[in-house]
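Hi support team,

I've been running sequence recovery on a batch of backbones for a student project. Most finish fine, but this one hangs at about 90% for roughly twenty minutes before it completes. I'm not sure whether the input is malformed or the queue is just slow. I've pasted the structure tokens below so you can try to reproduce it. Let me know if you need the job ID as well.

Thanks,
M.K.
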């Protein structure tokens, strides 16, 4: 029996280069064959900056999954966690209109200065039709 779906990962990234600024990347979209989104993960090239400085609102397919001001530290996992286990389990979020929206707020923090900035990456674990 042939499998009808497969698991893929889709990533979206943006650069944070100004302190205390709200970032709203646009035109992020799920693949057209998406059946549902199973999990998400936040990562960064400077994880300590993401951990201490970031909050966000995340919507997938028109559904608000995480409200405005949700701490990034809750969605970040350490490198000591197995790669497969780093995703925050969402169950089965339907793709709706296929949109992915993030409103990310950078806020100064004494333990992580902005320096030359940092990149934020949202990774999604997706089940799609084959």
């Amino acid at each position: 029996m042939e499998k009808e779906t497969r698991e893929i990962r889709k990533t979206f990234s943006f650069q944070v280069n100004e302190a205390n600024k709200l970032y709203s990347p646009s035109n992020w979209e799920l693949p057209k064959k998406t059946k549902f989104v199973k999990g998400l993960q936040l990562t960064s090239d400077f994880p300590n900056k993401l951990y201490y400085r970031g909050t966000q609102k995340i919507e997938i397919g028109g559904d608000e999954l995480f409200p405005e001001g949700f701490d990034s530290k809750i969605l970040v996992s350490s490198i000591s966690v197995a790669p497969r286990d780093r995703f925050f389990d969402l169950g089965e979020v339907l793709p709706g209109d296929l949109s992915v929206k993030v409103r990310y707020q950078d806020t100064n923090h004494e333990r992580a200065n902005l320096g030359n900035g940092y990149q934020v990456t949202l990774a999604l674990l997706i089940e799609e039709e084959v």
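--
Follow-up from support: It reproduced on our side and the slowdown came from queue contention, not your input. The longest strand covers residues 5-16. No action needed from you.
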